[in-house]
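Q: What would this chain look like folded?
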Amino acid sequence: MPAILDDPSSAPIKRWPSRAETSLPAGIKPRQVTLRDGQTNATISPFTSQEQIPPSLLAFLCRQFNQEIESGDTYPMVDPFTPEAFGAYWVQSFAAIMLLDAVDLQADEADRLDWSKVCLGSYYIKPNYPGRSSHVCNAGFLVTEAARNRGVGRLLGESYVDWAPQLGYCYSVFNLVYETNVASCKIWDQLGFKQIGRVKGCGKLKSYPGQLIDAIVYGRELVSDAQNS
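A: My prediction, written as structure tokens:
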């Protein structure tokens, strides 16, 4: 569910006013989770720069994302990313990556790991609009091929609605969730997102030749735990 304004080839949308601090809020730190099977443990880790991520892991995520683009059913892009372009696009502002618990990204051998076995998914957070509306955010999600149907998408979504307000965002908009993406729609419905709009016939999807598929616009207010207390 990328931002409509988010042309991968355009300059990134920046927060306004810009922030002087570069460190993450204290509440945003590696998050331990358990998958749907009740046994598999994983960690969702936050990143603010692609330099913090092993190059081989970024390359793996790029390949996974390109497969999603090639499938032609969830993202509107048609052209694949180079690893360099993907890193700049995905970790433009903030990104999170879910890995199996045993993985230590600080270890010397981290860049030689088989990511297809240990990387479960990722998402980014960035402003959806420029300037005076840059406190409204958007996110894009990716569940890796080997991690499907294990509850990874829901866990990533839960961390998103927790972390986004801590980053200073007040509202989340997903501009483009094709109504045929049932798994994604189910997650956002369950996490309290509202269907605030519909774009008629905006998707020419591979699995539906000759049809134009509607997209749902999802929105949700973002409130941090501190604001709730």
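The helical segments are 55-71, 83-90, 115-118, 152-166, 182-190, 225-228.
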